[in-house]
Amino acid sequence: MNRNRIFGSAVFVVFIAAAFLIFGSQAAFAKEKVIKMTLAHADVADATQNVHAAAVAFKNYVEKESQGKIQVAVSPGAALGNTASLQEMTMSGEIEAATSQTEGTIAIVYPNIQAMTVPYLFQSVDQALDVFRGAYGQGLFEDMRRQTGLRVIGLWDNGGFRNFTNNKRPVHSPADMAGLSIRTMDIPAHMELVRSLGAKPTPISWAEVYTSLQTGVVDGQENSIPIVILGSLQEVQKYMILDHHVYTQQHLMVNDAWFQTLSPAHQQIILRGGEKAGLAGERAARVYREIGKSIIGKKMEIYTPTQDELAQFKAAAQAPVLKFIREKGVSDPKWVDGILTAADEALVGLGYAKK
Prior knowledge:
- The chain is an alpha/beta fold.
- Helices cover 49% and strands 18% of the residues.
- The protein has two domains: 3-109 and 151-157 and 251-294, 3-Layer(aba) Sandwich (D-Maltodextrin-Binding Protein, domain 2); 162-246 and 295-349, D-Maltodextrin-Binding Protein, domain 2 (3-Layer(aba) Sandwich), CATH 3.40.190.170.
């Protein structure tokens, strides 16, 4: 049987089990008119893919808990447009909800989101989630709602930590990055990160990444383990370092003006649906990443850096990128200072560090 099919089936089973354990009982409502809601995303329409699976789980939860009074139409695979277009459509009210594939798209309308791109900030997924779901993240998203009219109702796993891959040589330290051409998204902070490590950032659209790596247009790229597998990049790359430079998530956003027209009971269902679907997707994603490493390991050499080596990456990249984000990224530097403080507090709260 095809490895990817086995991989996908395993993820799907875990996702469904997680969703079953999380989702609660049905709410009771009086007779109300049916509310139509479109949720669009640009990821593939695959039930084993984290974002689409979470979108379907959201639909099922909301429709069940509202007793069918809220009907959710999921539009996957960029059928209504790319991520930036979907964001614009949500802001204008043309559709009710969409996901952001990266914080870079949100930065077009809300620059402060770039505070989330500080490299080598988090030691674990739990630390990152503690920051994003805690007081810091909620404050940032409330500020975003006031400025843009976009309300974040869920944080959905986007594959976890991003890592570097390349075709030239094993990378164990920043010195090994020197001279490599690395594909990045068109996100200035990500490009500055690559530049600070001595490599050459080259923005290339996702649709062209596989061919660009295959033909040598670029030497490498940076992405999370599930995204590497999604694009079959292990077929055209030789080396991966699990440096975990940036942790990214997808943001499930709704038009806030539309949200405010809902009854309090329906608002709570929408909010709980976004949260619960994200939690179910996160559980599946953790398994996804572990299975993914074994698949990638059959094609690529995977290196886990030592703490000393990670410290070298942090020393080389964090200060320059922080300076860049403060001066050319965010509109209010307090969000940069805030995420640094929140990250330290999360380590203490999780028991990884002392006060």
